[in-house]
Amino acid sequence: MRKLVRIPAAVRGTQWARAAILLGLVWQIVPPAALPTEAASATTATLTGGSGTQVASGSLYAKKGAPLTLVVNTTSDTFCVKLSGDQTGQLNTNAASVGKTTWTFNNLKATDGDGVRTIIATSYADTSCSSAGPLAASVSYIADNTGPLVSGAVNPVPNAAGWNKTAPVSISWSASDAGVGVASLTPSTSSVSNNGTTTLTAQATDVLGNSAKGSATVELDTQPPTISASRSPGPNSNGWNNTAVTVSFSCGDQGPSGIKSCPSASTLSGDGANQSVTGVAVDNADNQSSTTVGSINIDTTPPTLSGAPASAPNAAGWYNTPVTINWTCADGLSGIDGTCPSPATINGNGQGLTAPAIVKDRAGNQTNATSPGVNIDSTSPKTTVTAPAGWTNQSVTVSFSATDNLSGVKATWYSLDGAAAQSGSSLTISTEGVHSLAFWSEDFAGNVESARNVAVKIDLTPPTITHDYLPEPNARGWNNGSTTITFDCKDLLSGIVSCTPPQTVTTEGQAQAVPGTAVDVAGNTAADPASVSIDETPPSISAVAASAPNAFGWYNAPVNVHFTCADALSGVASCSVDAILTSDGANQSVSGTAVDAADNSGTASVTGINIDRTPPTLNGAPTTAAGLEGWYRSDVTVGWTCSDALSGLNGACPSSSTITGEGADLSAAASVSDLAGNLTTTTVGGIKIDRTPPSTTVSVPAALASGWYGGPVTVTLSAVDGLSGVHATFYSVDGGAAQEYSAPFVHATGGSHTISFWIVDRAGNVEDATANQLTLNIDNIPPTVTFSGNLGTYSVDQLVNINCAASDAESGLASTTCQNVNQFAGTYQVGSNTLTASATDRAGNVGHGSTSFTVTVGLASLCRLTVAVLLPPGTPTQGCNVLNQVGASLTATQKALFVKAYDAWLTTRVGKGLTADQSSMLVRVAGSLS
């Protein structure tokens, strides 16, 4: 039983009271003894349990459904007790006329879940439990429906990957219970000795009978991994390697944990004997295995080998007998495999001939050595050629490669198609055909290789492809039956490799495509876009007269019979045009034919046509003949004649007509009719009358402002005639013979000349030549420019005095750039100098002239020039002293020092009898000394 604690009524039902109950401080509440008894009050409550309950540490624990008995003590005036909290709704009433003090609840059951459960008993002064007393009693128990917590500890503790590698592995089980405590734990320990993953369980039960299980997993691997090693490459027969050796490892695990780490390949690259590599394999349980590859001998250093002639060459460095070479060799690690090479003998002729030798060490390193070169003499060069085999359809570049082991290649020669030999390392052949190319080389010793030949085949031209039709289409390109197209392919060079076979077309249709292709051996192609049009169906045709005859069944005009044709495919190629019956006669007929483009045909006819429609004849002609080129220059009279062979004339013939005025197509007309009503009107046209003379204009380029031309002048004559047109144009120069003009002509004769010109039209009218004249002034000779006084060569201190003169013999000078020169030669560049000038005459012709001279410099002339330009002239100078110290010639260093010193002195003289320009000139001249 818990300790009884009295709670004052003032705090009963407060947070403090509820907390005390929940914390297990009380399980029975009684009123304070000092307080007076209150009406219908619950004073104490007592809770006991049956099977499934247990008192531990002063608290009552109960499983779900365990029976609970509650006894509540109240004041004597209590008639009803009502429960709330964990057992809400339970009632206990007294029907007697007096109250009672003890109330027992036997049917209570513990609830589910875990934790403190509180039952509150409230007393009532009436049997309906509606008048609650001032005091209530409460009691609590702890619901416990959870089994203990079971855990297992693995010994030894597994590694970080969760694995053990030693057996057996033990598990120590433990259990804890937050409530009434553990009653049993089975088993207390377990053991695992088998490799692999093993999961074990244990079960614990608390005092109330709640049970729970726990598990633990053991991962055990007691088997070490496997590891093997291999080396690459393996040793030679002497047990040595002459390259780096790589040791590779392969790992496996017989146990369940698997490989954790396997060593990567290790490479030994250093020289040494009896080297080794060790590798360790580790599985996930930390089991280890190792292996070692030993006896690794590496020698990567080749042996040394040198040779020397057994005897010395002559003073010129040549031998005239075979040369013996003696060899020496050594190896510092694996040793020489065998002995040094035997002496070698160099035979033959040539320059820089050597003897080879080979030595190997026991590791297989090989040294190839060459003896010092000796000079003897031999062998012609060898030439190879790079050219395509077979046919090609593009330009070919042929390359020659010549080698010579002795004196070297002097030149490579070739001859194309028997032409003269040329030298070179390549040539490009761009022309078609099969070309024969001979080639050879010669060395510096004069050895000439025998010529060899290569064939170069070039075909740049596509093949030709044509086609034939069987049968051939008509002129309009149509056939009216099945047609076979046969292709004909040709190639004049490389030949045909493929040609489209014959194709037969049987269906109707227009422009049905039948393409053909030709390919030659060189790869050139040609296409033939052949097509065929086939129409086997004839066209349709109908015929009808355009007008009806008169009442007697006759026509007095042409009868037009119209034909209408149609064709649905190739179209109508020809349809009989309207047939016009113009001849007189009875019972005439007209037939028409329709032909389509494929030559299919159809016919139609009209019969029973009677016609008399021949008009009378009426003819007219000029009574006089025309003049030049069919033209008249006055009035023209036209006379008329007429007749009718059938019905006769209706009246007399027309009177003569007169044509007046001007024109290119004048005419006169007249009419006559026969008795059948046919009318004839005739016009006599094409009468040409021109009464007016033509006119001419002239065009030349504009002259200069001086009125002169500087060269030939093109004269263009333009003739105009408003009617009959120009018959011919003429001109003369300075009153000379007439010349016929056909195109613009050039007048190039110098001087002043007069050109006259005129025209004759096609009617014979002539222009007045005296009204058309042109005067031309021409100067086509450029002026001359000359120089005089040139001495040719000047020292820098001499005066250059050269005069320039210009002249023109015809139109006279307009301008010139001539200038006379009078100045020191030092003002020009040392070396060659050229003076130029030009002159222009009044006709625009330009003449040029030039003269050249040379400027030299020496110590004396430079000194004289220095003295000459100083003010006052002739003043002795320190510059001359510097020059005198230089001597007759200068080295490059001396020249630089002199120029520097001379320049420094000149700088001091600027403004003291020497200008800056003069100083610059002297420095430039001094820099030209040699």
How does this model look, in words?
The structure is a single chain. With 930 residues, the protein is mainly β. It folds into ten domains: 5-143, Immunoglobulin-like (Sandwich); 149-220, no CATH class; 225-298; 304-370, no CATH class; 382-458, Immunoglobulin-like (Sandwich); 468-490 and 500-534, no CATH class; 540-611; 617-689, no CATH class; and more. The strands form 22 sheets. The protein has a six-stranded mixed beta sheet with strand order 4-5-11-10-7-8, with no helix packed on it. A five-stranded mixed beta sheet has the order 31-37-36-33-34, with no helix packed on it. Helix 2 (859-869) packs antiparallel against helix 3, helix 2 (859-869) runs antiparallel to helix 5 (916-926) and helix 4 (892-909) runs antiparallel to helix 5. It is extended and about 180 Å long. The protein starts with a strand and ends with a helix. The relative contact order is 0.04. The model is unreliable at 1-38 (pLDDT under 50).
SSE blueprint and pairings:
Elements: E1 5-6, H1 15-22, E2 29-30, E3 42-49, E4 53-56, E5 59-62, E6 67-74, E7 80-85, E8 91-93, E9 102-109, E10 115-124, E11 132-143, E12 149-155, E13 163-164, E14 169-176, E15 182-186, E16 189-192, E17 196-206, E18 211-220, E19 225-232, E20 245-253, E21 259-261, E22 266-268, E23 272-283, E24 288-298, E25 304-309, E26 323-330, E27 344-346, E28 356-360, E29 366-370, E30 382-386, E31 391-392, E32 396-403, E33 409-416, E34 422-423, E35 426-429, E36 433-443, E37 452-458, E38 464-470, E39 478-479, E40 483-490, E41 496-499, E42 503-505, E43 509-513, E44 516-520, E45 525-528, E46 531-534, E47 540-545, E48 559-566, E49 572-575, E50 579-581, E51 585-596, E52 601-611, E53 617-622, E54 631-632, E55 636-643, E56 657-659, E57 663-673, E58 679-689, E59 695-699, E60 713-720, E61 726-733, E62 739-741, E63 745-747, E64 751-761, E65 773-778, E66 784-788, E67 793-795, E68 799-807, E69 813-816, E70 821-824, E71 831-841, E72 846-856, H2 859-869, H3 878-886, H4 892-909, H5 916-926
Helix pairs in contact: 2-3, 2-5, 3-4, 4-5
